Amino acid sequence: MTGEEKINIDEFDGKKFKNRFVEEDDNRKAVVTHYLHNYHNGVKDHFEEEAAQYIKQIVEYKNEEEKLNIVSDSALQQLLFEVEDVPFPTPENYTFKFIDLFAGIGGFRIALQNLGGKCVFTSEWDENAKKTYKANFGETPFGDITKERTKNYIPKGFDILCAGFPCQAFSIAGKRGGFEDTRGTLFFDVAKIIRDKQPKAIFLENVKGLKSHDKGKTLETILNVLRNDLGYYVPDPEIMNAKEFGVPQNRERIYIVGFRGDLGINSFEYPETLDEKVTFKDVKEKDVVPTKYYLSSQYLQTLKNHKERHANKGNGFGYQIIKDDEISNSILVGGMGRERNLVLDYRITDYTPSTHIKGEVNREGIRKMTPREWARLQGFPDHFVIPVADASAYKQFGNSVAIPAIQATAEKIINLIKDKL
């Protein structure tokens, strides 16, 4: 392989290799990046046999004439640099290992890496979220975790399982609901991984509504499975609000933590809230934002009419403007997620529309928050890379976890298991 030729993991996809392989495998990039990320520790052995084949194929594809039979040191070093020279690298002297399920764009990962953790497996099905994850961590998540082939990539010996799984109802046959009653849901796959891999601790996050979902039966079943079927000590779940951990967003989520029964842990205290009060001005863009974020006068009038109609019916629905000294509503995907978090920004100087809008740009200074402001509302640092279009970015940050609240809780978990690592 000549010094001028460059290889890149992102070139390794089904389109380029469709004539080379009989069976397509969406996890190829994940195998390679997970292998490289664990190249300096024993976890690499779990991925090595398959990853070595894929890396060889990358190099062969880039150099058809030489037909290399081995991966040269220069090629390997180049690939290692690609996964290690990233905005959020693994801590050099990590003290524990974790896996990141339903990873989204890595909110859990940032929080646990900040505490000295090493991520040894991650999965996420959304392709745009995978792009963002790869751009920031140098690692492509595995895909559908419901598939046994994907589960088989999870190594043994990690300490903490993290998962922000969706809320789904169970078909409960028994009075309380058990492991088999959750079959067909994503929680079943999480529970199966816990049963098979036996991590020391688990940390699950879900929407606040899980507490009352299906008249409380859903949460009751989850706790019954974790406590009785899997043998974990699980204290009563707590609803945590992001606004109490240093970000100006009213975002309530339920946290479920658990500890393997043989560890002898029988008490847990969730973190105390911070006295620090922050408002939207703390995350507001410092510079004038592009015109595209300002509402058109016609759309703004539509929102006003919609709110007035509901107000006449005694409802509180409709758009909302967040002042600089206030905190935002929970940022959500779809519906009125963005419209309930409009802001005032009079710094606009160019009212020329930059997109195909109906009407003209409003003169009241009303705009949407930017994706970067949404990122800050979730506690993402400003060097977090946003490589996708705005529509995808809003979706990704709206679906993410609030990093400061996750980190404060994870620190409590780690303090309890640190002498057992």
TrEMBL record:
<protein>
    <recommendedName>
        <fullName>Cytosine-specific methyltransferase</fullName>
        <ecNumber>2.1.1.37</ecNumber>
    </recommendedName>
</protein>
<dbReference type="Pfam" id="PF00145">
    <property type="entry name" value="DNA_methylase"/>
</dbReference>
<comment type="similarity">
    <text>Belongs to the class I-like SAM-binding methyltransferase superfamily. C5-methyltransferase family.</text>
</comment>
<dbReference type="InterPro" id="IPR018117">
    <property type="entry name" value="C5_DNA_meth_AS"/>
</dbReference>
<keyword id="KW-0808">Transferase</keyword>
<dbReference type="InterPro" id="IPR029063">
    <property type="entry name" value="SAM-dependent_MTases_sf"/>
</dbReference>
<dbReference type="InterPro" id="IPR050750">
    <property type="entry name" value="C5-MTase"/>
</dbReference>
<dbReference type="InterPro" id="IPR001525">
    <property type="entry name" value="C5_MeTfrase"/>
</dbReference>
<keyword id="KW-0680">Restriction system</keyword>
<keyword id="KW-0489">Methyltransferase</keyword>
<keyword id="KW-0949">S-adenosyl-L-methionine</keyword>
<feature type="active site">
    <location>
        <position position="167"/>
    </location>
</feature>
